[in-house]
Amino acid sequence: MELLTQNGISFAGSEGPAIVIIVILAALALLNLAGRRIGRILSWIFQPILLVLGVVIIPGQVFTARFLEPVLPGVDVHALVAAALDAMPAWATAASWAKLALTTAGSIAVVVLLIRAAKATSR
What we know:
The protein is built from six helices and no strands. By secondary structure, it is mainly alpha-helical. It has one domain (2-122).
């Protein structure tokens, strides 16, 4: 923890974007379940963005040391990542893996369901 503090690293406040995404997903789910066209349109916009962000951002959280080594030459990246992991709750690593799996699988599932709904309404 001391190593993180010395380097100005803090995890405080990082839950905000996750809460916003959850609220958006819940609203889209409710709109889609109610059969509202705007829900489908917004889902077509939001889900691909979420999928791309999940594929780009979350692996950086899961494979942090691999991504940081080329960016931070001369820094003991493994010690830095180990210090960060020690400072985080024990469940954080499992949560990162779950985010990667659920974001990817969930976004793909939603897009497949949107395609099916589009085909059903065009008949």
